[in-house]
Specification:
heterodimer, A: about 110 residues, mainly beta, 5-stranded antiparallel β-sheet, about 0% helix, about 55% strand, globular, B: 7-stranded mixed β-sheet, 4-stranded antiparallel β-sheet, 11 strands
């Protein structure tokens, strides 16, 4: 079967750096997405990786290793507003999105 | 402003009742999707449509129905056959020609059973 694994919950301190990992086992690979979702709200797009390496976008960066079936989202200079769930999703060989359950990130002052 | 609008924000369903969730987009996107979100689980695809008057079942289509009569609209009906409808429902759209085909989501509808 197809599977996306993420930690259920993480805690970090305001101003610090946090890395949220995502491992996947899917039938084929056509890209990996990270979305941010505040409680009770819509997910919003953060990043997209299809080739190995690091994509940097301001305070957020996303890394992909296709050979290891592994990605991470790196958040720097954490702010209280970064408290949210972070969803990892992989597009499989049929171009269907497979979603992880999400990682709830709690930021403490 | 372009976007995707879901209504209502909260909906209550009585036993044996069908309810319809609205989803409208003005992004000129060809593809539209309905997802169900339950606590502790990933998003699950109910139905999707890539063109007007055509739609495909997702992973959990049983107990749901959709229509796509206009490009802008993709309403979801939760029928009485859906025995566990309580969930957060998300509508999304995407461009099939954009490089990433990233999804744009509506603000969601929380459906509860009375």
């Amino acid at each position: 079967g197809q599977n996306i694994d993420q930690p259920t919950e993480m805690t970090a301190t305001e101003g610090a750096i946090v890395q949220i990992n995502c491992t996947y086992q899917t039938s084929g690979f056509n890209g990996l997405f990270w979305y941010q979702q505040h409680a009770g709200e819509a997910p919003t797009f953060l990043s997209y990786n299809v080739l190995d390496g690091l994509e940097e976008k301001g305070r957020f960066s996303s890394f992909l290793s296709r050979s290891k079936g592994y990605s991470y989202l790196l958040l720097k200079e954490l702010q209280m507003k970064d408290s949210a769930s972070y969803l990892c999703a992989v597009k499989d060989s049929n171009y269907q999105l497979i979603w992880g359950a999400g990682t709830k990130l709690i930021i403490k002052p | 402003d372009g976007g995707i609008t879901q209504s209502p924000k909260y909906l209550f369903r009585k036993e044996g009742q069908n309810v319809t969730l609205s989803c409208e987009q003005n992004l000129n996107h060809d593809a539209m999707y309905w997802y169900r979100q339950d606590p502790g689980q990933g998003l699950r695809l109910i139905y999707y449509s890539q063109i007007v008057n055509d739609f495909q079942k997702g992973d959990i289509a049983e107990g749901y129905s959709v229509s796509r009569e206009k490009k802008e609209s993709f309403p979801l009906t939760v029928t009485s056959a859906q025995k566990n409808p309580t969930a957060f429902y998300l509508c999304a759209s995407s461009s099939l020609t954009a490089e990433t085909e990233k999804l744009f989501f509506g603000s969601g509808t929380q459906l509860s059973v009375l």
